[in-house]
Amino acid sequence: MTIEDIGLVGINVRMWRHLAVLYPTPGSSWRKFAFVLPVTAMNLMQFVYLLRMWGDLPAFILNMFFFSAIFNALMRTWLVIIKRRQFEEFLGQLATLFHSILDSTDEWGRGILRRAEREARNLAILNLSASFLDIVGALVSPLFREERAHPFGVALPGVSMTSSPVYEVIYLAQLPTPLLLSMMYMPFVSLFAGLAIFGKAMLQILVHRLGQIGGEEQSEEERFQRLASCIAYHTQVMRYVWQLNKLVANIVAVEAIIFGSIICSLLFCLNIITSPTQVISIVMYIMTMLYVLFTYYNRANEICLENNRVAEAVYNVPWYEAGTRFRKTLLIFLMQTQHPMEIRVGNVYPMTLAMFQSLLNASYSYFTMLRGVTGK
C-alpha cells in the first residue's frame, strides 16, 4: 500500500504527485512550474489592477479579496514545493504509523482508523467540490453586470483590458481557474485536516489501550509491558504532532492575519454596497473564509481535547493493584501527559476553538472601528 492508497491523505497526495508538487520525477518536474507560474502571473496582474482601483473602495475591497485568496493559494503551494523533502519524510512517517496500526491485532484500533479514513476522504471531496463551485460562481458573475469586467480583475500597464479582443482573450484564459485554483487552494486544507484527524485517531487508540491495563487476569509483568508499550506509543504520537506543528506553524500564522483582515474588509464592504449580486457574493466569500478557518482550528482543537482524555485515562489506570515499579512508571507517564500536545499559530498561540473565537472577535472589533471612523 502506497501513501496514495491511505484515505487520510490519498486524494491530496495524488493530485500533488500528478502536478509534481510532491514526489517529482525528472520527466514530470516541469508540471509544477506549468501549474504555478501562470497563476503567479495572474496574481501579479491582479496587483496592478488593485493600484488602478484605489479610488473605488468597494471594487478595491472585492478585488483585494481575490488577490489575497490567490496569493494565499500560491503561498501554500510554494511552501510545499520548497519544503518538499520535509513533507515527503513526514508522509513517510505517517505511512509507517498507519501500517503499524493496520497490521496489528487491535481490531478496535483498526476500526478507528477506518472511520478516520472515511472522514478525511469525505472532507477532501467536500472541500474540492465546494471550492470548485465557489470559483465557478465568481467566473460567471461578470456575465450579470452591465459593464465589462473579468472574473478576477487583472491589468497590464498601457493595455485596455475591456477592449476587444483583449477582454475576450483574458476571459478565456481565466476559464480554467475553477480547476486550477481548487487544486491549488484546497489540498493543503484537506491535508492538514487529514493529518490532524490521524493524530486524533492515534490518541483515541492510546486511550483504549490504557483502558485495557488492569484486571485480576493480568500478571504484574504483563501490566508493566502494556504500560511500557503505551508510553512508547505516546512518544511516537508526540513526535508526530511536533513535526506537524513544525511544518505548518508559520503558514497558519500568516493565514490567520490574511483571513482576519479579509473578513474585516468584507464586513465593511457590506455596509457600502447596494448591489444584491455583490451582497450575495460577499456573504459567500465570508462564509468561505470562516469555513477554512474553522476547519483548521477545529481539527487542531480535537488533538488538544483528545490529549486531555489521555491524561484522564492514565489517571484512571488501577495503579493500586500494581507494584512499586508500575506505580513509579505510571506517575512519570502521568507527568508527561500533562504537557500540551498542540499545533501553535506561529509557534506562539495554540490552535484551539478559543483562539478561533478570539480571531473573529478581533476582526469584528477592527470592522466596528473602521465603520466608526468612516461613518459608513
UniProtKB/TrEMBL annotation:
It comes from the Eukaryota. The keyword Cell membrane applies. One of its GO terms (molecular function) is odorant binding. It is a multi-pass membrane protein. It is found in: Cell membrane. The keyword Cell membrane applies. GO terms for cellular component: plasma membrane. Pfam families: 7tm_6 (PF02949). Keywords: Cell membrane, Membrane, Olfaction, Receptor, Sensory transduction, Transducer, Transmembrane, Transmembrane helix. The chain crosses the membrane at residues 33-51, 57-75, 123-144, 179-199, 247-273, 279-297. GO terms for biological process: signal transduction. InterPro entries: 7tm6_olfct_rcpt. Belongs to the insect chemoreceptor superfamily. Heteromeric odorant receptor channel (TC 1.A.69) family. This is Odorant receptor.
